[in-house]
Amino acid sequence: MAHSGNGHHHHHHPHGHSHGHGHGGAEPDAVPAAFDMTVPDEELSPQQLSRRAMVRRAGLLGAGLAAGGVLGGVGAGQAAAQTAPASDQSRRESRSGRYLWLAGDHHIHTQYSSDAKYRVIDQVRQANAHGLDWMVVTDHASEQHAKIGVEKVNPDIVAARDAIEDTLVFQGLEWNIPAAEHGTVFVHPGRNEVAVLKQFEATYDGGLNKATASTPANEALAIAGIDFLAAQVRRRKVKDALFLANHPARKGIDSPHEIRGWRDAQPDIAVGMEGAPGHQAGGLPAPHGPGSARGIYDNSPSADSFAGYPLESYRTWGGFDWMTATVGGLWDSLLAEGKPWWITANSDSHNVYADTAVRGPNSDFAANGRYDDPVYGGDLNLTDTDFWPGQYSRTHVGAASFSYQSVMDGIRAGRVWVDHGALISGLDARLRGGGRETTLGGSLHVRKGSKVDLVVEISLANGPNWAQFTPKLARVDVIRGAVTGAVSDKDTFTTPDTKVVKSFEVNKATGTVRLTYSLGRVDRPVYVRLRGTDGNRSAVGVHGAAVDPVGPALDVVGDADPWKDLWFYSNPMWVLPA
Question: How many angstroms separate the Cα of 550 from the Cα of each of 457, 532, 536, 538, 547?
Answer without folding.
Answer: 22, 11, 11, 6, 9
